[in-house]
Amino acid sequence: MSDLQSRIDTLRQTLNQHSYQYYVLDNPSIPDADYDALYRELQVLEQQHPDLITADSPTQRVGAAPLDKFGQVTHQIAMLSLDNAFDAADFQAFYQRMADRLDQQVEFSFCAEPKLDGLAVSIRYEDGLLVQAATRGDGYTGEDITSNIKTIRAIPLKLQGDYPPVLEVRGEVFMPLDGFEKMNDKARLAGDKVFANPRNAAAGSLRQLDPRITANRPLSFYAYAVGAVTDPALLLNSKSHYARLQQLKSWGLPVCPEIRLVAGAEAALAYHADILQRRASLAYEIDGVVLKVDDLLQQQNLGFVSRAPRWAIAFKFPAQEKTTRLLDVEFQVGRTGSVTPVARLEPVSVGGVTVSNATLHNQDEINRLGIKIGDNVIIRRAGDVIPQIVAVVLAERPQDARDIVFPTECPVCGSTTERVEGEAVTRCTGGLFCGAQRKEALKHFVARKAMDIEGLGDKLIEQLVDEKLVQSPVDIYRLDMPALVGLERMGEKSAMKLLAAIEQSKQSSLPRFIYALGIREVGEATALNLAQHFRRLDALRAASLEELLAVADVGSVVAGQILHFLAESHNQTVIDGLITVGVQWPDIAEKAQTAQPLAGQTLVLTGTLIAMGRDEAKEKLQQLGAKVAGSVSAKTSAVIAGDNAGSKLAKAEELGVAVWTEQQMLDLFSEHGLR
Ligand SMILES: NC(=O)c1ccc[n+]([C@@H]2O[C@H](COP(=O)([O-])OP(=O)(O)OC[C@H]3O[C@@H](n4cnc5c(N)ncnc54)[C@H](O)[C@@H]3O)[C@@H](O)[C@H]2O)c1
Ligand SMILES: [Zn+2]
Fold first, then answer.
1. What is the pLDDT at residue 520?
2. Does the interface predicted TM-score (ipTM) exceed 0.90?
3. pLDDT tops 80 at residue 120
4. Which residues line ligand 1 (CB under 6 A)?
5. Which residues catalyse the reaction (predicted)?
6. How far does the chain reach from its first CA to its final CA, in angstroms?
7. Nearest C-alpha to atom 14 of ligand 1 is from which residue?
C-alpha cells in the first residue's frame, strides 16, 4: 500500500472514531479544531486524488447512524451538513464557485445566520400539531426523539395562523450559556457528569431515553429551515429563504433574532465580522455564521454535493477549544483564604487570545478530570469566562506525568492549609496574618459589629495596606498623625477624628473582640456564645475540643476552626499585640451566664430606638438569652417597637403578639446590670 493510501486510511479511521465519540456518545475526545484539521487534510488529499475517494469516506457522509435504542425516523428530505470556510479567502472561493456554476455575474444575496452550536432536529407538524421529531442521524435516518422535543418550552406543540397541513421544520436545539454553566455547577457539586461544552450538553440532554431527564435540562430551539411541506404554495409566493423564516415565525416558531438579509460578498463578510465581535455577548454559543443564498431558485439551480448544499457555507469562527499541555500547577490564595490550583499551560491561541493559564477550581475538579502534570488537555475559552480545562486526552498521557499535590502550607504566609469536611475548597488558616487575606480580614476587624472603628472604610484600609502602614490589626493602633496626614485625601481634621475613633474602639466587649478576629465559622452569635461560656479570653484560648463542644451552637466544624486559628502562633501574636496596645473589655459578670430571663424567647426589634442602636440592643437582648429575629411570625414572643414602627408592629398586633416599648426593654437591661 502506498504511503498516501495508508495516510488516507489512517485519517478515515481516526475521523470515524472521533465521529462516533462525538455524534453517538456526545463525548468528544478531541477539540473540533483538531477534528477539522484532520478532516481538512483528508479533503485535500481526496481532492488531489479523486480516484481514491470512497463512498464511505467521512468526507462523503453526514453525522453517524442513529442509535438502536431509539426508534428510527426516515427523513423525507435529507438533512445534510454544511461546507466550511475558515477565512475570507475560503468564502470568496465559495462565492466564485457559485458564480461560475450559474454562469452569471449577478450579486448573490444571503440569508446570514448565526451558526448555533447544538444539534440539528427535524420537527413534523400535521394539521398544526407536533407529531414527530428526529435527530439528523446520518442525514437519511434519524432518531425518534418526539417525547423529548415536546419538553422544550421554546418549541410550540401547536402552530398558529395559516399553516400548511404538513410542515417539517428544521432547526437547532441548543443549551443557552447561563443554563449550561448552572447545570454544570450543580453537577460538579453533586459529583455528576459535567459536560465539556454546550453542544455536548444539548446533544446529551436531548438524546435521552427518559424524557423526564430532558425536561429538566435548560434546552432551547431556533428554526432555520423548512423540510417537507404538503403545500409549498402556502410557503408564500415569495422565493426567499429569509421570507420563509419570517413565515415560520408567524406560525409561532422561534427564529434567531440575529438573522439578517445581506446583499453581496462584502456585506456577508461584514456580517461575519459583526457577529464574531459580539460573540461573547450572545446568550448562546455559536461557532460561526451560516451564509445561505437567499433566492430559492438559485438554490435549486446550485443543488447539492454528496453531503452538503452548494448554496450555503458555514463560515467558522476561531475555535474556543484547543489542546495543549499542562506544564505545572501553581496555587493562588484568594481574599478569603481559599487556595485555588491554577494550571500553567503551554501557551496556545484560543479564540484569538493566547491562553497560558486556566483555573482548576479545587481538589474535586482535579479528581474529576483525573488530570496530571504533563498531560495533554483540552481547554475551552468561551467569551469572557476564564479558560477552563474540560478534559484530559488520556491516550496521550506521557510516561512521566505527575500527580497534582495540594500544598499543606499556604504559599503566601506558610500557615497550615485545611480542607473542611464537606467543603470543596482548601483554605489557608492564616486569617489575620495571611498577606493574601489581609485586606478582607482588616475590613472585617474594623466593621461596625466588630471593633467598630468609625471612618476606617474599605478604601482607607486598602490605602493603608498598599502603603504598608498597616499589616496586622495591631498596626491600626500604632497609626499616628504623621502617618495619616501623609495619605492622599486625608486632612488633619479627619485624621484626628479617625485617631479618636481608633482610641475609642479599644473599649470593646469580649463578644465583639472574638467576632473581630475573623475566625471562620465564628459569626456574631457564636462569638457571643463563646464569650458568655468562657467569660475570659484566656479561658477560650486554652479551651480543648471537648470544652468548645460544650458551648451552645458550637459543633465540630466550628470547634475545629477555632482550634486551627488558635494553633497558629502568629494569630496568638496578633491577639497578644492587641491586648498590649490597650484593647480591653469589661469582665463578663457571672450572672450574665446564669441570669437569662429571656431564654427561649424570640424577639423582633422594629422602628427607631432612642437610647441605643439596634445592634447594641440586639447584643444585650442576646446576652439575656433571647433570639433576635428579623421578621414577625406566630412564633415571635414579643415585638419591641421604637419610634415610627410600621409593618412589623401591625403584623404583631394582627397576630396578637406582645408589644414592648423601648423603655420596657431598657428597664429590663438595667435590672440585669446591662446599662
Ligand atoms: N471533536 C470531534 O471529535 C468531532 C467529531 C465529529 C465532528 N465534529 C465537529 O462537527 C462539525 C461537523 O459536523 P456537522 O456535519 O455536524 O456539521 P457542521 O456543524 O459543520 O454544520 C452543519 C450543522 O450546522 C448546524 N447549524 C447551526 N446553525 C445553523 C443554521 N443557521 N443553518 C443551518 N445549519 C445550522 C446544524 O446542526 C447542521 O447540521 C465540525 O465542526 C466538527 O469539528 C467534531
Ligand atoms: Zn496564608
1. 86
2. yes
3. yes
4. 18-19, 21-22, 28, 30-32, 35-36, 62-63, 81-82, 113, 115-116, 119-120, 136, 172, 224, 290, 314
5. 115 (n6-amp-lysine intermediate)
6. 99
7. 81
Q: Return the C-alpha cell found at 272.
A: 461575519
The CA distance from 43 to 463, in Å, is 61
Q: What average pLDDT does the chain have?
A: 91
Report DSSP letters for 525-594, one per residue: HHHHHHHHHH-SHHHHHT--HHHHHTSTT--HHHHHHHHHHHHSHHHHHHHHHHHHTT-B-PPPPHHHHH
Strands 312-316 and 83-85: parallel
| Separation between Cα atoms, residue 357 and residue 180, nearest integer Å | 22
Q: How far apart are CA 628 and CA 525, in angstroms?
A: 10
pLDDT band at 587; cut points 50, 70, 90: confident
Name the nearest CA neighbour of 528 among 541, 509, 547: 509
Tell me how far the alpha carbon of residue 520 lies from the centroid of ligand 2, in angstroms.
14
How far apart are the C-alpha atoms of 361 and 168, rounded to whole Å? Answer: 44
CA distance 652 to 631: 10
Q: Which pTM does this prediction carry?
A: 0.71
Q: What is the pLDDT of residues 300-340, one digit of tens each?
A: 999 999 899 999 999 999 889 999 999 999 999 987 899 99
Cell numbers of 382, please?
468561551
Q: And the C-alpha cell for 675? A: 446599662
> How far is the C-alpha of 486 from the C-alpha of 65, rounded, in Å?
75
- Tens of pLDDT, residues 548-586: 998 888 988 899 989 989 998 889 999 999 999 999 998
Give every CB contact of residue 140 below 8 A, 6+ residues apart in sequence.
Answer: 74, 75, 78
- Closest Cα partner for 280 from 318, 229, 307? 318
Pocket probe mutation, ligand 1, options 123, 290, 305, max atoms within 8 Å of Cβ:
290
Greatest mean pLDDT range, 258-267, 346-355, 521-530, 546-555 = 258-267
- The ligand whose atoms approach the alpha carbon of 19 most closely is 1
Length of the chain: 675
CA distance 291 to 271: 9
Instruction: Provide the edge-to-edge strand list for the sheet that holds 286-293.
Output: 83-85, 312-316, 286-293, 109-116, 260-263
